[in-house]
Specification:
It is a single chain. The protein has one domain: 3-Layer(aba) Sandwich (Rossmann fold). It is 41% helix and 12% strand. The chain is built from eleven helices and nine strands. A seven-stranded mixed β-sheet has the order 1-8-9-5-4-2-3, with helices on both faces. The chain has a two-stranded antiparallel sheet with strand order 6-7. Strand 6 and strand 7 form a beta hairpin. Helix 1 packs across helix 2, helix 1 runs antiparallel to helix 10 and helix 2 crosses helix 8. The longest helix has 26 residues. The protein is globular, with a radius of gyration of 20 Å.
Length: 340
């Protein structure tokens, strides 16, 4: 197993079966193809503003997307496309949202960094670093109070571990034994700065876990099977009243911090090493070695390719939002006239 549980060793919930592994493969392909298309549309000046892609980090979102219950809660950062899609939000409205179109997930008003779909348990993507973690505690607290068995999962980058809200959320989650899972997607860089240069510990999340009475969990974030084991175990622990978990998933983004960043600050040898550990070709080869027909996987890839094309056409066909939408969803009563 690619997981290191360095303090304590919770009972693992088990490896994914063939059906779950194929679902994780399909999800990874969907996330990769979608974000490649988003990048292409950005270069065509159709995606307005910037965007933050998860190319190379798909295994984390896919594993949790498969392991989570449909009524669980997801809280993501501005790098949230993958986590939104992994919860079952259709590609068309998400891509239309990136294009700022009226048929977008949020009528074109949220854009790339604020994807939200309460219907699918996606409780928002947050551009303020760490701001979503205390909020994840809030929904976990409500689930605990109501006895629903729901779990909140908060995804964040390694840079967030130096933010006060990260520590406040961990402390609150622990003392209240909240059903929440904190997932650090450690891609080694906090925007343009290597995290190790400004962080006192080697493992920014795992090495802080003991301060809150939690096990130190490090997992290969590019290994979907290892991610699934840790995801299902932590979710089960939270659901059964065992409290929070803090997971550090080691991964790497293939590109820069955002589409405006060429990522030239990263050593070429480092980039090459991590590209060789790309989760998609690795997992594809593993499935074939385990007896899945290559033609079946090729069929999945072809099917996803067609779905991305359909989503692109849907997004492009959307109208640009008009002035009538400016004040929609801004005021509690639907308009601003009462304030004037």
């Amino acid at each position: 197993m690619s997981t290191s549980l360095r303090e304590g060793k919770p009972q693992l919930a088990g490896r994914p079966d063939r059906e779950l592994r194929l679902r994780m493969f399909r999800l990874q392909v969907e996330l990769r193809y979608f974000e490649k298309r988003a990048y292409d549309l950005f270069l065509q000046n159709l995606v307005k503003g910037t965007s933050h892609l998860s190319l190379g980090q798909e295994a984390i979102a896919a594993a949790f997307g498969v392991a989570m219950r449909s009524d669980d809660y997801t809280y993501a950062t501005y790098r949230g496309h993958a986590h939104t899609l992994a919860r079952g939000v259709p590609m068309g409205p998400v891509l239309a949202e990136l294009l700022g179109r009226e048929n977008g997930l949020m009528a074109g008003k949220g854009g790339s960094m604020h994807l939200t779909s309460v219907e699918h348990g996606v409780m928002g993507s947050y551009a303020i670093i760490g701001a979503h973690l205390p909020i994840a505690c809030g929904s976990a607290w409500s689930a605990q109070y109501l006895g629903t068995g729901q779990v909140s999962v908060g995804f964040f980058g390694d840079g967030t571990t130096n933010i006060g809200a990260f520590h406040e959320a961990l402390n609150f989650a622990k003392i209240w034994t909240l059903p929440v899972v904190f997932v650090c997607e450690n891609n080694l860089y906090m925007e343009y700065t290597r995290t190790s240069e400004i962080t006192a510990v080697e493992h920014p999340a795992a090495d802080r876990a003991s301060a809150y009475g939690l096990p130190s969990i490090i997992v290969d974030g590019n290994d979907p099977d290892a991610m699934y084991e840790v995801a299902s175990t932590s979710l089960q622990l939270a659901r059964e009243g065992g409290g929070p978990s803090l997971i550090e998933a080691k991964t790497y983004r293939h590109g820069g911090h955002s589409r405006a960043d060429p990522g030239k600050y990263r050593p070429d040898a480092e980039v090459a090493e991590w590209l060789a550990r790309d989760p998609l070709p690795m997992y594809r080869a593993r499935l074939i070695a385990d007896g899945v027909a290559e033609s079946e996987l090729a069929g999945v890839e072809a099917d996803v390719g067609l779905a991305v094309e359909a989503a692109t056409e849907f997004a492009k066909a959307g109208a640009v939002p008009g002035e009538d939408l400016l004040l929609k969803d801004v005021w509690a009563n639907g308009g601003a006239s009462w304030r004037n």
